[in-house]
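Reminder to self: tokens first, then the designed residues, so the page reads top to bottom the way the pipeline ran.
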């Protein structure tokens, strides 16, 4: 008789636990800051880059490279770094999964990456030519490593937060990338259309900053509530 009574109670308790877990998961999914970063007005003309100094690069780009310092598609600004500058509470261990920075077609891919302090960066050479990777940080240790052969890899980390560390290749001076290092996982890089999303943000008030390598930064204050996504758009003039 007692078993008949406890069995439904156990099922009820299991249903409560499952329901609570589903609600908690939904809340976690809903807590996000999303928006779009735009650039108002015409951008600068793309720069033309001659790559004839390296026959391998010339073979891949017989007409040279054309690159936009400010990449605008339909008004959306690509490759802007968006992060929570203020309001984050607690410690967040660095992920062990590396972020990839590839040298392909005599260019860096992607040209902007974000990592947590202490998170590894896996640097690849996908070209059959010599590349070297030379970041010039201010708060971190500088390094300069060569990768003379296709398929070579290197792992490096930055231990201190620092925004938009410039990375260059001394062999190919037109190659450039930026690495932003932060102490937490709440950051994103805008897509080609300027949109971004920072997921899993706990409820609270935050200072959100968008930073671009060629433009000044913009900030605004956003309140994130449980079970609700917050919107933060930015417009560069």
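Designed residues (237 positions):
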């Amino acid at each position: 008789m007692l078993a008949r009574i406890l069995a439904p109670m156990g099922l009820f308790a299991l249903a409560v636990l499952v329901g609570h877990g589903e609600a908690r998961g939904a809340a976690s999914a809903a807590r996000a800051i999303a928006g779009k970063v735009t650039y108002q007005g015409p951008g600068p003309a793309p720069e033309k880059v001659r790559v004839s100094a390296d026959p391998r690069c010339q073979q891949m780009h017989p007409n040279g490279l054309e690159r936009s310092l400010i990449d605008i598609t339909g008004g959306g600004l690509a490759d802007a770094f968006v992060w929570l500058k203020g309001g984050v509470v607690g410690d967040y261990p660095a992920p062990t999964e590396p972020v990839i920075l590839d040298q392909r077609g005599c260019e860096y891919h992607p040209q902007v990456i974000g990592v947590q302090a202490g998170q590894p960066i896996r640097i690849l050479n996908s070209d059959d030519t010599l590349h070297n990777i030379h970041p010039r940080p201010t708060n971190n240790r500088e390094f300069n490593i060569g990768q003379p052969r296709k398929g070579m890899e290197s792992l490096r980390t930055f231990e201190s937060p620092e925004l938009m560390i410039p990375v260059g290749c001394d062999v190919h001076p037109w190659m450039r990338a930026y690495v932003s290092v932060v102490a937490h996982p709440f950051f994103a890089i805008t897509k080609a259309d300027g949109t971004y999303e920072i997921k899993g943000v706990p409820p609270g008030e935050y200072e959100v900053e968008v930073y671009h390598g060629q433009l000044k930064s913009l900030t605004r204050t956003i309140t994130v509530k449980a079970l609700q996504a917050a919107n933060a758009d930015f417009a560069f003039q």
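DSSP finds two helices and 21 strands in the chain.
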